[in-house]
């Protein structure tokens, strides 16, 4: 899709952000084209994961699936500087309207509160949660979703990036409470990083929740849509009660620096965004 829809400045909550962000490289930037938007439609899901996608009916929908049973979907947009404010509002409103579709467990779209990156400048994002990869495919193929992308998104954006991962070992509801603040972190690994290196990174990121009690939920996983992720292969989202709790952690970088040092050798660049 749009995949514009949870396990993991110089601060504690940077989650390997502020120090890593300095390593961000220009290679993270990709030119925007119609080909960039094509992955929104999630066709790879049909051939790779499921031969045919059946829409999830509301009668089969479980509003509180087990934490291990859902997929995170994040789409980042860069809105054109000359875009009319009314067109931007229409894009956001219509994206949020997709929350009513059956394959969607949670969806929220809006402006990004803060971007911690020296090379990427996204302005808006969409975060959604789905029961499974096939349900994410059903959402992407839904006529309502395609209509929103065609009529409200494509005409006003210059760039897009999307990352998807399966949740793993998290607690709490898949529905992010109203008023919550979220910090999304995307990691681009150096070439040649082996599985042992990835496992070390996952261990460090997943362990962050134990070190920062204000994190109410942490989701982390490996991206399974590499074609539209600009090289970022690991995604995480930390959920806080509100922006006050998120920003409060930015005053202490000691623990964040300790965690960063454990995996610095594996990272090429890091993108961190705050969303409220």
TrEMBL record:
Pfam families xref list: Dabb
Gene3D superfamilies per record: 3.30.70.100
InterPro entries: Dabb (IPR013097), Dimeric_a/b-barrel (IPR011008), HS1/DABB1-like (IPR044662)
Quaternary organization: Homodimer.
Domain of life: Eukaryota
Domain Stress-response A/B barrel: 71-165, 181-275
This protein's name: Stress-response A/B barrel domain-containing protein
